[in-house]
Automatic annotation (TrEMBL):
This is HAT C-terminal dimerisation domain-containing protein. It comes from Phytophthora fragariae.
């Protein structure tokens, strides 16, 4: 982790989400990234509430468990966070093009 990061949990969580490892998020990382979590569609929630009846068979419970495990949380907005190192590299490239060799005299 970078020493300049404001929140190491946020940084580590972003890295895991961008690598596609959302199952490996810690509780602290999930809590920090909660604002970026997309809500599931309303029709899926209604289907889950309907399935919660007392007369659910064993097979239906297994199917529901598999369905819930397959559904991954979606953190769509994290893909739009630019890597800091790329931004800094662009800044220094522009500074070099602007100042040229005069930067040595500064």
């Amino acid at each position: 982790m970078a020493d300049i990061a404001h929140s190491s949990d946020f940084e580590a969580g972003c890295v895991r989400v961008l690598k596609g490892q959302t199952k490996r998020l810690t509780r602290a990382e999930k809590a920090v990234l909660e604002r970026f979590l997309e809500a599931p569609p309303a029709d899926e929630d209604a289907q889950e509430e309907k399935d919660d009846g007392a007369s659910v068979t064993f097979v239906e419970r297994l199917q529901k468990r598999r369905r819930l495990e397959e559904r991954q949380p979606s953190y769509e907005l994290l893909a739009y966070i630019p890597p800091t190192s790329n931004v800094v590299e662009r800044f220094f490239s522009v500074a070099r093009a602007t100042f040229g060799l005069q930067r040595h005299t500064l």
